[in-house]
């Protein structure tokens, strides 16, 4: 079992599944009493999602998925081999199984990495709030130059796993409005620099206060401050780009961890 059953639970659904590599799994959906955990931490951290570095925290920490390039090369080779096999033949089934095993290996590596990193984030930072970007992943996948890299990062799965682990500890996960210009806003003075929209610009200097920024760390710091400034009862989706300047202002009662 991946996780132990809690003391009180009710089985709601059981599903049997056979994978592409002919392995069998049982998934059990259970219902447990709703126990609200009180988290009194005043710490807020922001997480910027990227391609070069999968995650950048407002603390300055960066995390990248393990190098999967050797498996990508295997996939290309095995896809070619599969295409040459006669449909319905035993050799084609063998080729299909070899290909499925590589895909399974990649999935297992990514899942293991995501579980370890999310565990570290929610357990080692004594955090009360975590702010992530509300990325339009489907829309971004339409970019042929970036789609392959975005798919490999598994941002959606990361956010899902982070959210349920955070909930178990009473940590609130906030999705910042996708129009919030976290990468373009100076995390020191709040100036919005529209000249740095291009993803190729990894470092920039604020023309107002002179602060030199690492693009991803600066974005993560702005996301942390976004969480600080979110008014009680106001949904993140209500934020508009003009709110960005507010994110540079200090908030009372909470503190952003910005390295």
TrEMBL record:
Taxonomy, superkingdom: Bacteria
Biological process per Gene Ontology, one example term: transposition
Protein name per Swiss-Prot or TrEMBL: Transposase repeat family IS605
NCBIfam families given in the database record: guided_TnpB (NF040570), IS200/IS605 family accessory protein TnpB-like domain (TIGR01766)
Pfam families the record matches: Cas12f1-like_TNB (PF07282), OrfB_IS605 (PF01385)
Key words of the record: DNA recombination, DNA-binding, Transposition
Keyword DNA-binding: yes
Domain (Probable transposase IS891/IS1136/IS1341) ranges: 27-143
Organism per entry: Thermosipho africanus (strain TCF52B)
GO MF term set: DNA binding
SUPFAM superfamilies found in the cross-reference section: Rubredoxin-like
All copies of domain Cas12f1-like TNB, residue ranges: 155-223
Sequence similarity: In the C-terminal section; belongs to the transposase 35 family. In the N-terminal section; belongs to the transposase 2 family.
Keyword RNA-binding carried by entry: no
